[in-house]
Structure formats: C-alpha cells, structure tokens
Amino acid sequence: MLFRLSLEQAITYEEGDYSFKDIDNAEAGSDLCFCFRYRYDDVFLNLEKLWSGLRTPFTDEEKKLIEAGFPAPERAGYGLQLPQGNYQMLQTIPAGTIQELKPVLASSLATRLEGLVYVRFFKENDFETVMQIFSPA
C-alpha cells in the first residue's frame, strides 16, 4: 500500500559506496539510502544509481533535542539528502539486489515514465530491517 508522506526536514547522509547488504552490518537505528534516476524504456525499468549514503543512529543528545521539538541537528560530512517535500512512500521487505528491487519499484512508480526515487533501508533492531521507497509526489 502506498502512503502519502510529507517530510518536514530533509534526512541527511554521509556519502559512501554502499550495497543493499551493508545495512546488515550497521548498528540498530542506522539507515542506508540510495538515490536512483529511473526511466522506462518500452516495458523495461532502467535504474541509474546517483548516490548512496549512510546515517548512523541518533546520539542521546540528538534524541533529547528531537524529543523537545527541535529539528535534528546537522552533522558534519552529511552532504547528501533525501529532501524535504511530499512523497508517495511504500514500506516493504528489503530487496537484496537491484534485480529484486525492480519489480517493487515498477508497481510503485507506474504513473511516471522517469524521475528520481529514493530507496531507504532502516535497521529497526538487530533482527529487523525495512525498506522504504520514496517517490516525489
């Protein structure tokens, strides 16, 4: 099921050359994000990875600020971002490869022939990771 989501603040990431499986070795509370340019060529979905980045869990100080109603503080070296704005979001079981991701994307991107899509892997705890697909609305 697709949800409409409004990000009030960008989510920032530290750039790196990551694969989907790198989230397995990250700390609980981390998230790994990929930005892709997609384009349909006849019936095929083509993906071009523009960047990948990692965000480590919030520190206790950051959590206190957020709980007090302040925005998450900016982190040095976190130059990539999932921008603030309106999105259609799908949360599902993580794909292990780009080939496993394509059918999931095809069902959630069916209304546009090309654009940007953000694929976020969030490690909820040591045993659970979710994949979120953010498509600008």
Q: What's the arrangement of secondary structure elements?
A:
Blueprint: E1 3-7, E2 11-15, E3 31-41, E4 44-55, H1 60-67, E5 80-82, E6 85-92, H2 98-108, E7 114-123, E8 129-136
Antiparallel strand pairs: 1-6, 2-4, 2-5, 3-4, 3-7, 6-8, 7-8
Q: Would you kindly provide a written description of the structure presented here, covering whatever features stand out?
A:
The chain has 137 residues and is mainly beta. The protein has one domain (3-136): Multidrug-efflux Transporter 1 Regulator Bmrr, Chain A. Helix content is 14%, strand content 45%. It has two helices and eight strands. It has helices at residues 60-67, 98-108, and strands at residues 3-7, 11-15, 31-41, 44-55, 80-82, 85-92, 114-123, 129-136. The chain has an eight-stranded antiparallel β-sheet with strand order 1-6-8-7-3-4-2-5. The radius of gyration is 15 Å and the shape is globular. The chain starts with a strand and ends with a strand.
Strand order of the largest sheet: 1-6-8-7-3-4-2-5
Strand tally: 8
Unreliable parts: none
Q: Please, what is the average pLDDT?
A: 93
Q: What structural class do you assign from the helix and strand content?
A: mainly beta
Largest sheet composition: 8 strands, antiparallel
How many DSSP H or I helices?
A: 2
Which oligomeric form is depicted? single chain
The helicity comes to 10-25%
Query: What is the CA–CA distance across the termini?
Result: 15 Å
What is the overall silhouette? globular
CATH third-level topology? Multidrug-efflux Transporter 1 Regulator Bmrr, Chain A
User: What is the rounded Rg?
Assistant: 15 Å
